[in-house]
Design goal:
mainly alpha, rod-shaped, 4 helices, single chain, 0% strand
């Protein structure tokens, strides 16, 4: 038994074109296969992502303005810094004043004399 010779589709097309008398079209060369890139290690990918994040973080989408002054959205109050210390100091002073007003004997007499001497240097009583 003989095996039938299989013909490929391209051979059939070429034979049909040759029979019709038309010249074969000039087909462009097929593209060169891509070279496989060297696989990046996890550390290289992390460094690349870090550089991209830093570039994106430092790039501002806001136009103009003072770079040292933080952006405040419309209708939003600017941040207040150092307010907690003053509030605590005020509470301590008020609590001490109330305690002294209720019972002046909580302050030792030596402290009272020292305070009067100190104030007496600047103000005549």
């Amino acid at each position: 038994m003989q095996r039938a010779r299989s013909t490929s589709v391209t051979e059939l097309r070429a034979s049909l074109r040759a029979a019709s008398g038309k010249p074969e079209p000039d087909l462009p060369k097929p593209p060169k296969p891509r070279k496989n890139k060297r696989a990046e290690s996890d550390e290289e990918r992390m460094q690349k992502a870090e550089r991209a994040a830093m570039a994106q973080h430092t790039t501002s989408l806001l136009k103009g303005g003072n770079p040292n002054k933080p952006y405040v959205r419309p209708g939003e109050r600017p941040e207040r810094k150092g307010g907690l210390v003053w509030q605590l100091l005020l509470v301590v002073v008020v609590a001490g004043g109330v305690a002294y007003a209720l019972d002046p004997s909580i302050v030792p007499p030596e402290w009272t004399d020292t305070a009067r001497d100190f104030v007496g240097q600047y103000i005549k009583i």
